[in-house]
From TrEMBL:
Superkingdom assignment: Bacteria
Protein name (record): Methylenetetrahydrofolate reductase (NADPH)
Keyword Oxidoreductase: yes
Provenance organism: Tropicimonas isoalkanivorans
Annotated keywords: Oxidoreductase
SUPFAM superfamilies the record matches: FAD-linked oxidoreductase
GO molecular function, one term: oxidoreductase activity
Length: 308
């Protein structure tokens, strides 16, 4: 009797363990008005969590600095947005940097274009902010920049990624000629495969900045669709649109479990994958995002936070 050859077993990472590992060191975004509704951040987030503070048009710098000061006092790593198109001039930029550092001990920032159709003053892009050298002179040690896995119609109106990629190559070169520790933090999306292809494309183009992938935290489907459309999310919006065809799901939270598990398994199988961390946009609320994350990978970190 002929013996059948044994199939070689391939290692398949455990999805639960992969997700837990992928979520370690995650960051989250707040706005001053949403942060004000949170009574106790240390009860929600692991110690040392990087908390980005979104600077929306119309938000006074006093509110930004006060939020940064509070979060810093609570033991978190604070990274305020610095939107180029909202800044009138270098004097204002210098004042913001000095206040963040002097009043809140901030040494990190996310530099953005800012989303306005036209600049309010001298700056129109994050590259101009970097070129001032003001962050380096002030002792900022980490500067993050934006990434767009599904493109950005404001930057590339014709739908290609030519201008976006050119800007990332410039930022890559900046990181190589300076001491700045840099990373790309992205807009959120809802499908893993296009994100994987985009991240691999960065490496193929010689861009080796680490990527912190933007993920929308749990939220009602209607809320998620509203934010996705407003933020210019691309083709992966179809994930939400397919779900919306089932009326019974419209009022149920849409959770990021599937996309994160797929990305986590890919990272476990490909350790050199460009995505290093997860960044949450808490569209359904900060507590909902923090609770979901603790349940799926940060339970032990939450326990440490509660006893610290």
């Amino acid at each position: 009797m002929a013996l059948l050859p044994f199939r070689k077993r391939t290692h398949r990472p455990d999805s639960t363990a992969a997700l837990q590992a992928f979520l370690q060191g995650y960051s989250i975004e707040v706005m001053p008005r949403t942060a004000a509704k949170v009574a106790d951040f240390p009860a929600l987030l692991p110690p040392g969590t990087r908390v980005y503070i979104a600077h929306i048009d119309g938000t006074p710098i006093d509110d930004m600095v006060a939020t940064a000061r509070r979060l810093s006092a609570d033991g978190f790593t604070v990274m305020p947005h610095v939107p180029a198109r909202l800044i009138p001039d270098e004097a204002t930029l210098g004042d913001w940097i000095a206040r963040y550092q002097g009043e809140a001990g901030v040494t990190e920032a996310l530099l953005l274009g800012g989303g306005l159709n036209a600049p309010r003053g001298d700056f129109h892009c994050s590259m101009q902010l970097l070129e001032t050298g003001m962050f380096d002179k002030a002792g900022f040690t980490r500067l993050h920049v934006a990434g767009h896995p599904e493109g950005n119609r404001d930057i590339d109106p014709d739908g290609n990624a030519r201008n976006v990629m050119e800007a990332l190559r410039w930022k890559q070169a900046f990181s190589e000629r300076t001491d700045a520790r840099m990373a790309i933090v992205t807009q959120f999306a809802f499908e893993a495969a296009p994100i994987i292809a985009w991240a691999d494309g960065l490496r193929a183009a010689g861009i080796d900045l680490p990527v912190h992938i933007g993920i929308a935290g749990p939220a009602k489907l209607q809320t998620m669709i509203k934010f996705a459309v407003a933020c210019g999310v691309g083709p992966s919006l179809r994930v939400l649109q397919r779900r919306a065809r089932d009326v019974s799901k419209l009022v149920k939270p849409f959770e990021p479990g599937q996309i994160l598990t797929e990305l986590a398994l890919h990272k476990a199988a490909n350790p050199d994958f460009a995505i290093e961390q997860v960044h949450f946009f808490p569209l359904g609320g900060i507590k909902a995002a923090a609770d979901w994350t603790a349940e799926h990978g940060g339970a032990e970190a939450r326990a440490a936070a509660a006893t610290a």
